[in-house]
Amino acid sequence: MNYSRPYYRYSLPILNQTLIAATEAANQFQFKMHYAIKANNHTRIVQKIKEYGLGVDCVSAEEIEFALLQGWSPTEIVFAGSGKTYFEIQYALEQNVGVIHCESMQEWEIIQEIRANTASKTQIALRINPDLKVETHAKISTGEKHHKFGMGFHEALEIIAIDRSIIGFHFHIGSQILDMQYFESLSLTVRNLLDTLPNNFNLKYLNLGGGLGIDYEQPERNPIPDFEGWMMALRSHLPTSLIPIIHIEPGRSIVGQCGTLVGTVQYLKHLDSQPLAILDVGMNALMRPALYGARHQVTAQSDQLIRVNYTVSGPSCESSDTFGDNFLLPVLKRGDQLIIHSTGAYGASMSLNYNLRRPLESQFIEEEIKTSFKKTENFAEVA
Ligand code: LLP
């Protein structure tokens, strides 16, 4: 029996290839990227991202502190969040972060109060809720007017009428968006809003958020997200002649596919519906399936020809601690290792110590290795 502890495994070659694709597209379409550090904050990963020249998008004082410690200059930091505390705003202003994305009139008032007593170079942009519906998971959609994020355009107009120092606007319509038409709609909506701005407003900053999705179904076939398609869609109604640089905040698309979670089968149960494999890792390390019903591919390294459909679950005392049903896997035994794919984003960074489980170790693959996983369609399925 293999008694190794579960761990996160990160492929630096995949992270590099992703960053090359992202920065090439950003250069081509003139975007400035700020990595949404909430997606993954492992030091080795953020250092690699920093090497490629991305700024950083933070949503708490702790993330700002961490980004500064990692060596980002304050001007490279943008600070977002629907519930920034007084302390966090004060900290951000004292640190002179580049831009705060202000989400409401009340928040603007707090910023004003603190600015009056702090000589800060931080600039203020307003987060607008564009009221756009997006086909993604309801819990990660953010851009409709019933969502808690941002302010209506009328409120933004009121603020810019009294505060001439506002530099521009921020938008973010949601996450894991694969259909580029939503980004085109955002581009059009933003264009229409910009066209109605008062003539004396000088737009210096536009940030269109993150949200580009990754292929959770076929991660090995499509490890690199479509950065070019994303940026082309965002540019569709906002040409460089109108706005030379657009800021964006990718998180998942940068780190999602470079991470896998490796766990070991502890127990097998032969339930009526289908056999069940219980692993030593589950929602404590990867909350996405329990929280959103998210589906991550699960594979096993094996040359066996027979494949069986399994339910794969974690060890916590929660029925929701399951990766799902119908994973076509070789016949499993105790001690077999399973790989849970596409876990580089919102995996480790959202992990829990529920049941006092320790955070997982991370291992890094430095060089390309040829995978020996066989594609499932080549195998005979056994009911
Ligand atoms: N900018 C803002 C203002 C955001 O709220 C987010 C993500 C991003 C950028 C980065 O979005 P991305 O490029 O990663 O889609 N835990 C969820 C995802 C939550 C996303 C929260 N905001 C999940 O595991 O699917």
Radius of gyration from the CA trace?
Answer: 22 Å
Helicity level: 25-40%
Distance between the termini: 27 Å
Order of helices and strands: EHEHEHEHEHEHEHEHEHEEHEEEEEE
Uncertain ranges = 372-383
What does the overall shape look like? elongated
Total beta-strand segments: 17
CATH architecture of the largest domain: Alpha-Beta Barrel
CATH topology of the largest domain: TIM Barrel
What share of residues are in beta strands? 15-25%
Ligand inventory reads: ligand LLP
Look at the structure and name the CATH superfamily of the largest domain: Alanine racemase
Return the average pLDDT rounded to an integer.
93
- Biggest pleated-sheet summary: 9 strands, mixed
Structural class: alpha/beta
CATH class of the largest domain: Alpha Beta
Number of helices: 10
- How many distinct domains? 2
Please give a quick description of this structure.
The protein is of the alpha/beta class and 383 residues long. It has 10 helices and 17 strands.
